[in-house]
Amino acid sequence: MPRTPTPVVAGWFTGDGNDFRLLGTRCRACSSVFFPREDTHCRNPGCLGGHLEEVPLSRRGRVWSYTDARYRPPSPYVTDPELPWEPYALIAVELEAERMVVLGQAVPGVTVADLAVGMEVEVVPGVLHEDAETIWTTWQWRPTGVTA
Amino acid sequence: MAADGGDGMTREVAVLGAGMHPWGKWGRGFVEYGLAAARAALVDAGLDWREVGSIVGADTVRGGYPGYVAGATFAKALGWQGARVTSVYAACASGAQAIDTARVQILSGLTDVVLVVGADAAPKGFFRPAGGDRPDDPDWLRFRALGATNPTYFGLYARRRMALHGDSTEDFAQVKVKNAALGALNPYARYRKRVSAEEVAASAVVADPLRLLDICATSDGGAALVLSSMEFARGRGVAEPVRIRAVSTVTPRYPNTVLDLPDIATDSAVAVEPASETFRVSVARSAYEEAGIGPGDLSLAEVYDLSTALELQWYEDLGLCGEGEGVKLLREGATTLGGRIPVNSSGGLASFGEAVPAQAIAQVCELTWQLRGAAGDRQVEGARVGITANQGLFGHGSAVVAVR
C-alpha cells in the first residue's frame, strides 16, 4: 500500500518542485503578513481588520543566522532511537519583501560549514520523517548555489 | 540613594527578607525547595509566617496541579493561616511577575507584608513542551516541525553576533570563565568550580557555535523574598531597607523583529515600521524610567545568561555599553568583580542552571545581599543600585531595580 505524503502542519506550505511555497496570510486592511498564518485576527495593534487572505511567501531569502542540532531533540520531534543521531542544520531566513525572518531546517547534507550569514537560500519541499502509513513532509532551506 | 521627584518614596517597597535553597540536582520535590527558601526569607526578615498578609507563588508548570497553584501549595506547606493567595505564570519571567504582584498589593494598601516564593524540580536534558498534540501551540510546533530546542535559539543569536559584531567563540568562553569564578564564591550556586577557556573549548558542541559549557543547565532550586511597605519596615526598626524601586513587566511591540523563543518566525515589518529599540532594550528602558535612573547609576546587574553570548547581548541591551561593544566591555574586565559594573556577581545561570520560577526571584536575592553589603567574598564594593534583567517565553519582559 502506498504511503500518503502529509504535511507536518496543514496549510503552511503547498506545491512541488519549483512551485513549492510557504503559505502565510495577509490582512486586507493593513497588508501585514503572518507566518505561521493568522486566519481570524490581524495582530497589528493599530488595525481592526478581520479579513485575512492566504498568500505565498517569497521563495528566496538571505540567511539571518544558522545553527545545528548536535543532540537528538525531545518529543514531539520524531526520531528513531534505534538509529545513530545525525545532526542537521537550522537556518533563520530573512525574506526581503515580507520583512520577516522564518526558521526552518536545512536540506539534508547541508551543514553549518556550508553556511554564512547573508547567503541566499530558497525554500524547497522536504521529508521530516516517515512511518508505516505516512511520509511527513515539511519545508527546508537550501543554499541557491546547491543543486539537489 | 534618595528617591527622586513626586511620590517616589511611596512607590517603593522594602525587601525585608531574602532566602534560597541551594541550586542543584537534588531529586526531591519543588515544594521542599520552596519551603526551605520561604523559611529562610522569613527568618531573615525576623517575621513569623502568621504575620504575612499575602503569599504569591511563581508557578512550577512541570509540577502538575500543585505547581499550577504554587501560591496555595506553599501556603499549605507553611501551614494555612488565612493569607491572601495568588499564583502567577510568565515562563522565565514568572518570578518578576510574582514580585510585581506583591508590590502592587502593598502599594495599593491591600496588605503590609507579602511572601514571594518560586521553586523548580527540573528534568534532565532539554526542556520539552507539555504532552499531547497541540498544533495551535507555538511551543509544541517548534519541537514537532523543526526539533528547535532552546539551545537552537541561543545558537542562532550567538552566530548572529559573530557575523554582526565579530564576536568569537573564545569571547563567549570568557563569559563562562568569569561567571564560574564568581559562582565558585556563592554557596547557593550549583557549580562551584572555576572553569578555564580550554575546558569550554573542549566541551561538546550542542548548537553550533555554542558548546555545553556555553549553555545553562536546568536545575532544582528555590528562592523567596519577604516584601513590605516602607512604613511596616520602619515599624520593625529597619530604617534603611533595600527597596524595590521599579519592576518592568512589559510586552514587545508589534512588529517584533527579533526571532524569539518559541516562535518559528518574526512579525512582518511590511505594514508597520518597527520601534527603534528591540524588545529587550525596552524591558530595561522601562525599568530605568520607572526608577528614575540610567545605566550610569548602576553598581551591579544580574542578567539572564541562558548562554554566554546572551550575557554579552544583555550588556548592550541594558546600555552598559554601545551596540556591538559587549566583548570589549568584558575584555576590559568591567563586568567582573572589581570592575566598573559587575554583571552576575552571583555566578549567573552559568553557575546556577535555570530553576525557572525561582530564577528571577534569585536574581533579586543577590541584589538584596549585595546592597546590604552581605555578599561575602563576592561583595561589590559600595553597591547602591542594582538591576536584574530577564525575558520569559511568549513576550514577558522582566527587570527589577533595587536600591539602598
What does this molecule look like?
- The complex is a heterodimer of chains A (148) and B (404).
- Chain A has strands at 4-7, 13-14, 21-27, 33-34, 52-56, 60-69, 88-95, 100-106, 120-130, 134-143.
- With 148 residues, chain A is mainly beta.
- In chain A, a hairpin with a 4-residue loop joins strand 7 and strand 8 (100-106).
- Chain A is globular.
- Chain A starts with a strand and ends in a 5-residue tail after the last strand.
- Chain B is of the alpha/beta class and 404 residues long.
- Chain B has 14 helices and 11 strands.
- In chain B, the strands form 2 sheets. A 9-stranded mixed sheet of chain B has the order 3-2-4-7-1-8-11-10-9, with helices on both faces.
- In chain B, helix 4 packs across helix 14 (356-372) and helix 7 (169-183) packs across helix 11.
- The chains are: A mainly beta (148), B alpha/beta (404).
- Chains A and B meet through strand 4, strand 6, strand 7 and strand 8 of A and helix 5, helix 6 and strand 5 of B.
